[in-house]
Design goal:
The protein is an alpha/beta fold. The chain has 13 helices and 16 strands. The protein folds into three domains: 5-163, Rossmann fold; 179-350, Rossmann fold; 357-449, K homology (KH) domain (GMP Synthetase, Chain A, domain 3, 2-Layer Sandwich), CATH 3.30.300. 33% of the residues lie in helices and 21% in strands. 41% of the residues are buried.
Length: 450
């Protein structure tokens, strides 16, 4: 099924990303008054009253102080427009008609695509009256919106649906939700290079300049008959290095990408020693209970050290995720990238495993017999019963006489025994430690991940 594409285009700071977020119903793209914030194509599938289309946000046309950045943004816009069924030319009612608006309109007309003029920032009567100036662009009509106040957005969506090729898929025809893989890591570890290799096109900007990626960018790709979404994220930096609101929102988008991912790929560089920031990233992934593949990139630059030695080094330096698989790759050459994606797929399937209560209790009883829970001066810790209550992640409820005696260390021990026994040996396991029924009102339940 071909999904129609709607692309948002315009000069910098006319509210393209605000409009994109308003249609999506959430803050997907970073919105800032600084030109050049949006650099890569950002897209989301939109469903409206049975209709389905892809909405694409693009960077601002013109006025970029970096030649490399300008070339990349123009290339991304050109690709998006070429693939579009409908192009929205967005202008700013507060600024009024600008020469750059006229330049953008001329460029879009040469592409011979269906165009719809959207006059944004119509926040009041003054701006609505000023909108008439945009008839000078030669469009017979335009649509007024205030993305900041969400006025005119629903009407715009209804107009889009009316203009697009009719696609109203049934539930059976709707594309199956692809597995989402978030790529996280320090800056310049090669996340965007890997994204471009997977997409088989220059989908996101790759630069030696730190901080190039700002938004979290969803990029769809296919391997064999399986569909995936790879989420490129901004490189993580230390809190004291976050200098402005753009950096702050970039970090927030990276954390959100981890939360909505099915599997996380934590990337590191073979030539660079694993440090505190890598350990913090690993901890943040496990605290989100996400399956994680540890990807050691730039193996083509490593000399004198085998892949097996690298795997041992990574597990030694990141003991909190020692259960996670390590894959050594080269995002530039594509070395072992297929193995990386296949490993991520396997982890996703592990997270869906559900173990019967009888089998689970048998393993827990054997584990308790080998090593009893801790005790206090007045009580011995006992586990009466265990049951798996959820998947993604595998979640096990433990019923005990005293939840406070089931320590984090003991839960790590139990998690390792469960991984040895069941086919979820490489994913985090969440425990819910509960007291007996008569104690629950007093003790409640505690959540733990291992």
């Amino acid at each position: 099924m071909d999904i129609p594409s709607v692309v948002i285009v315009g000069r910098p700071n006319v509210g393209k990303s605000s409009l994109f977020n308003a249609v999506c119903g959430e803050r997907v793209a970073i919105v800032e008054p600084t030109p050049g914030v949006t650099r890569d194509r950002i897209s989301r599938l939109i469903q409206h009253e049975g209709a389905l289309f892809e909405l694409v946000d693009t960077g601002g046309m013109g006025l970029h102080d970096s030649e490399e950045l300008a070339e990349h943004i123009q290339m991304q816009i050109a690709i998006a427009v070429e693939q579009a069924d409908l192009v929205l030319l967005v202008v700013d009612a507060k600024d009024g008609l600008q020469p750059l608006d006229e330049d953008v309109a001329r460029q879009l007309r040469s592409a011979e695509k269906r165009l719809l003029l959207v006059v944004n920032k119509c926040d009041g009567p003054r701006e609505e009256q000023a909108a008439a100036d945009f008839y000078a662009l030669g469009f017979p009509e335009f649509h007024m919106t205030s993305a900041a106040h969400r006025r005119g957005v629903r009407g715009l969506v209804e107009r889009l649906v009316a203009e697009l090729p009719e696609v109203a898929p049934s539930d059976e025809e709707l594309p199956e939700e692809p597995m989402k893989i978030a790529l996280v890591g320090r800056r310049n570890v090669g996340k965007s290079t890997l994204i471009n290799y997977l997409a088989q096109e220059p989908r996101v900007l790759v630069s030696e300049v730190p901080g190039t990626t700002r938004d979290s960018v969803d990029v769809r790709f296919q391997m064999d008959d399986l569909r995936f979404v790879a989420i490129d994220t901004a490189g993580v930096r230390r809190p004291k290095q976050v200098k402005d609101s753009i950096d702050f929102y970039s970090m927030a988008r990276s954390r959100a990408a981890v939360r909505r991912a099915d599997v996380v790929v934590l990337m590191m560089e073979a030539p660079v020693e694993i440090g505190r920031l890598d350990k913090q990233l690993a901890d943040s992934v496990t605290s989100a209970f996400k399956p994680c593949v540890l990807a050691v990139n730039k193996m083509d630059l490593a000399t004198g050290v085998s892949e097996e030695e690298f795997r041992g080094y990574v597990r030694d330096r990141l003991p909190g995720v020692a259960f996670a698989p390590v894959v050594c790759i080269s995002a530039v050459t594509g070395g072992n990238v297929r193995q990386l994606i296949e490993t991520a797929q396997a982890l996703h399937e592990q997270g869906l495993v559900r173990v019967s209560t009888s089998d689970l209790n048998k393993v827990v009883e054997e584990a308790v017999a080998r090593q009893h829970p801790p005790s206090s001066s007045s009580r011995f810790g006992r586990i009466y019963y265990a049951t798996q209550v959820a998947v993604q992640p595998p979640t096990v409820a433990l019923f005990t006489n005293e939840p406070s005696l089931i320590t984090e260390g003991y839960l790590r021990y139990l998690a390792n025994r469960l991984r040895e026994a069941f086919p979820y040996n490489a994913v985090p396991i969440r425990f819910l430690v509960r007291g007996r029924q008569r104690d629950r009102d007093q003790a409640g339940a505690r959540k733990h991940g291992h």
